[in-house]
Amino acid sequence: MLPDHRLAVTFMDDTNGIVDFSAILTATECGVFEALKDKACFDQARLDLGVVTWPNGADMDPAWMYEQIRTNKSWSVPF
Question: Could you give the CA distance from residue 9 to residue 17 in angstroms, rounded to a whole number?
């Protein structure tokens, strides 16, 4: 975990970077991701079979995350 709703990620091929979820804080409609506005909930991120997941059922597509990180070294998740 990093400050400000960000995650440091490293993939099996050592591709690594930062995923920035801070846009969630100002999003008005973000469905299952709404709970992640609470830092305590966000900080419960874990890997489940290679997928970043949270206890409320939210998850991120690892293929999309990988492509963004491989290309840009960072990804600001749009909400």
Answer: 6
